[in-house]
Design a protein that fits this description.
The structure holds two protein chains of two kinds. Chain A contains ten helices and five strands; from the N terminus they run E-H-E-H-E-H-E-H-E-H-H-H-H-H-H. Chain A is of the alpha/beta class. Chain A folds into two domains: about 140 residues, Rossmann fold (3-Layer(aba) Sandwich), CATH 3.40.50; about 55 residues, Arc Repressor Mutant, subunit A (Orthogonal Bundle), CATH 1.10.10. In chain A, strand 4, helix 4 and strand 5 form a beta-alpha-beta unit. Chain A is globular, with a radius of gyration of 19 Å. Chain B is built from five helices and seven strands. The mean pLDDT of chain B is about 90. In chain B, a hairpin with a 2-residue loop joins strand 6 and strand 7. Chain B has one domain: Rossmann fold, CATH 3.40.50. The chains are: A alpha/beta, B alpha/beta. At the A-B interface, helix 1 and helix 5 of A face helix 1, helix 4 and helix 5 of B.
Chain lengths: ~230, ~140
């Protein structure tokens, strides 16, 4: 019987690359592709894949919250997180969310097959840096991974985290309400609760909070030459 | 029409996705891949492609710098097309000023890339941000 894999990444070009890589492996099939976390959860519930591969930086619902919700729904889901960064905080959150694999996107062509093989054999797969952090935690040295540490987002409910991401992506309360099938009034209540719990005072504060806590991700462009830098002869 | 393409992106998985898409078009050939600007310059010289599909954000030498250097050494037929995640008119302007003939946003690459390569390979300008597409001769 084939190993069935569900892919979730907002870039179709990346999904094509991942599909090409995974389908070379005999006995594996990509049973579905999702372009955001919400779609991934719906498809996972329907398709019941053996492995779910989720990108962290997806719109509407990021990969970490997708992982949390998938495992809340069914603890047997095996999730590999794809990420552009292996900062301590992202590693900690991915482990805390319950991911069994952690692969850097830049190394996916090399590591992803090994990660899926590991999960297939009921093992976990992490990058060397994650292993170092886990070991440091075990030895209780330095920046340890510890369940005793306060969680990154201590006070937000699942729904509040979803609303936080959508507001930080620039959506209005009305748009959030439509996406989550809620009333605008309910979204505004969530919004007030989020601002109060996090001691934030503006949407700008909320965006900064969302970036700092990996709820949304941005990539800075290279330095652009501005007209003021142009020398006129 | 035969088109020889060089793919430049620091993520192999993205190059694989681009390759899969481009090689579906009869007559088009991905003649090489590079993972940063320096490697791209070497391969432009050695492989003489018709179109360079170039990412903006890369290590060692970014795509804008690479594009400017390519302009200095390119053959007459070669055109540069950016495929980037920066959905920004300012970045697009910068890319065109660097000498590129095309600009496509990565999130829409599957929708826009084939049309963009076709346009720039015929020396037309193709620019597509998430919400606007423009082709000019």
């Amino acid at each position: 019987m084939k190993l069935r894999i569900l892919l979730a990444d907002d870039h179709e070009i990346v999904r094509r690359g991942l599909c090409a890589l995974l389908q070379k492996h005999e006995g594996w099939e990509v049973c579905g592709e999702a372009s955001d976390g919400r779609e991934a959860i719906e498809m996972a519930k329907q398709l019941k894949p053996d492995v779910v591969i989720v990108d962290i930086g997806m719109p509407h619902l990021n990969g970490l919250d997708t992982t949390r919700q998938l495992l809340q729904h069914d603890a047997n889901f095996k999730v590999i997180v794809l990420t552009i960064t292996d900062s301590d905080q992202v590693i900690r959150e991915a482990l805390d969310a319950g991911a069994r694999g952690f692969v850097l996107k830049s190394d996916a062509a090399r590591d992803l097959v090994s990660a899926v093989e590991a999960l297939q054999s009921k093992r976990m797969f992490f990058t060397p840096r994650v292993n170092d952090l886990v070991l440091a935690g075990f030895l209780d040295k330095g920046h340890a991974i510890s369940r005793d540490q306060p969680p990154i987002l201590p006070t937000l409910t699942v729904r509040e985290r979803e609303v936080t991401q959508l507001l930080a992506e620039g959506k209005s309360s009305k748009e959030v309400a439509s996406l989550l099938n809620l009333s605008t009034k309910t979204v505004e209540t969530h919004r007030s609760n989020i601002m109060r719990k996090l001691s934030l005072h503006s949407i700008r504060d909320l965006v900064v909070y969302a970036i700092k806590n990996n709820i949304i991700q941005i990539q800075m462009p290279p330095q652009i030459h501005t007209p003021t830098e142009t020398t006129v002869a | 029409m035969a088109v020889r393409i060089l793919l430049v992106d620091d993520h192999p998985i993205v190059r694989q996705g681009l390759r899969t898409l481009l090689e579906g078009r009869p007559g088009w050939e991905v003649v090489g891949e590079a993972s940063d600007g320096y490697e791209a310059l070497e391969k432009v010289t050695s492989l003489q492609p018709d179109v360079v599909v170039l990412d903006v954000t890369m290590p060692r030498m970014n795509g804008l710098e690479a594009c400017r250097s390519i302009q200095k050494r390119k053959n007459d037929g070669l055109e540069v097309l950016f495929v980037t995640q920066h959905d920004s008119p300012q970045m697009m302007r910068e890319a065109l000023d660097a000498g590129a003939r095309g600009y496509v946003v990565k999130s829409n690459a599957a929708r826009d890339l084939l049309e963009a390569v076709e346009a720039v390979s015929q020396h037309r300008v193709f620019t597509a941000l998430a919400k606007s597409i423009q082709v000019t001769s």
